[in-house]
Amino acid sequence: MPDISPVFFGAPMLPDPDHLAALMAEALAAGWLTNGGTLHMRFERAITENQALGDVASLTSSGTMALTLALMLGDLPRGAEVITSPISFAATTQAIAGLGLVPVFADVDPETLTLCPGAVEAAITPRTAAILPVHFLGVPCDVAALEVLASRHNLWLVYDSAHAFGSSIGGVPIGNFGDASAFSLHATKLLHTAEGGFVVTRAGKADSLRRMRNFGLEQGRVTGVGLNGKMSELHAAMGLALLPSLFSEVVARKALRQVYDRSLAKLPGLRLHTGGESVGGGTSYYSLRLAPSLRARLHLALAEEGIFARDQFPFYVVLALLGRTPRSSLSRAGPPLRPVLRLRFFACRCMAGLRLRLPTGLPRQSLPFAWPHQRIHGNEIDFRI
Ligand SMILES: Cc1ncc(COP(=O)(O)O)c(C=O)c1O
């Protein structure tokens, strides 16, 4: 029986309610609601095992908080410049400005819509202290070139990975690049905790980050700057309750991305938004670039099918309205790009009855989540929906 319920952009993945209730009951029985309870520890460990490849993931209260803490970890001087992408959600630049740092925009690559390393290099001044690129809509940045720039100019390199859970480069999970990588676990993301986020840091930095997310406290004493960036037990319960279906959801979405790419590649007026063949595409959104004349028609046609997509506009229009961006950095960002239409994945409807064998890109022992309709052969999965 096909699933014919409407598909809304940003509708959250929902857990088995009994599983969520059991986890919440565990927190209530323990009488421990926040400050590193057992659910928090379990979820943080699961994220670390799944995403951090030997590095450490630290949970936070939101993706914006993850960005803020990842920038704070760089100990950047007040008033320093941070080069970032003009095409993102407001939180990227708000995190910079909120810390008294100055956002400077560099242009994006027209294919990937992620920061262009050449444009970043041209924007570097003696006041530049950091680069904050965005894996926009899950398409990875040119991490190799950005890494070279950051180390040549001694810049703190933090990635905004809010859209990029499940993306990878050459089989390496996306969080493992730069000095730190900040993720959102907001309800619209693939894996979520209703509100939440996490930061993947490189070896040795997690203790500092975790101190800062808890008011700078260490053994009850304030030892430095900090704020309240912790995740509660109830939010961690939501994340844990979603884990059992996460792996199959990622595999389904990646397969669906391939189906969409194949089906849409040759249509006139459309341009796919991909990161090339060597990288795993994002799992939160599927995005297309359209001739403006097609946008309204496509919206209508999709709505008739019960699919409600959303436009993504260049971010600096929003920023200019907030009145926070210096004119000079706006003009450096170049002319507005065409809007991007984002479609949410709708795995159930499109994939019904499909049977696929997919390479996982992961060693077998690191496949963390069992799923009833999957059979694993070496590094491949026989997958049925
Ligand atoms: C690119 C980007 N960065 C940061 C954030 C902030 O995440 P959160 O809503 O969890 O604070 C978002 C939110 O969607 C985002 O799209």
TrEMBL record:
The keyword Protein transport does not apply. Keywords: Aminotransferase, Pyridoxal phosphate, Transferase. It holds the Pfam family DegT_DnrJ_EryC1. The keyword Transferase applies. It is an enzyme of class 2 (transferase). Its EC number is 2.6.1.-. GO terms for molecular function: transaminase activity. Belongs to the DegT/DnrJ/EryC1 family. This is DegT/DnrJ/EryC1/StrS family aminotransferase.
